[in-house]
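tool=predict chain=A
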Amino acid sequence: MKTNRHTKILELINKYPITTQEELIDYLRSDGYDVTQSTVSRDIKQLRLTKILLPDGSYRYQASPNSEKGAKNNFNTIFSSSVVSIEVAMNIIVVKTFSGMAQAACAALDMMAFDQVVGTLAGEDTIMIVCSDTDKAKECAANLHNYIG
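tool=predict ok
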């Protein structure tokens, strides 16, 4: 759900000159997303959106040009240094991490917004990744294996 919402937010700020959180909330609600101000505020922070000055003196949200690159670098660093193993079980991927690292690795994974991922859940040393089907789970696991060498 969060990944879909983040994708929608990026789509909306590229399509419309959104200047306030309230405007963004209105657009999201009109597209069927039941969001609160605090949720949108967190989304803006997680997506690293910035406001830019327009020629008319107003401001609008835009995705930071470095946000995608920064997220990928953070993911590479955190994921590769945390993960011990990756196993596929039907449409679920089980990622084992060093003790205490699952939450950080899972947060980095969530920021990457892999298309195959429906949702994630992290514990102390285990991440559960749910995909919509077995083929997508295998594809996602293969992608994740590339990050751990």
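Helices lie at 2-15, 21-30, 37-46, 67-82, 102-112, 134-148. The mean pLDDT is 87.
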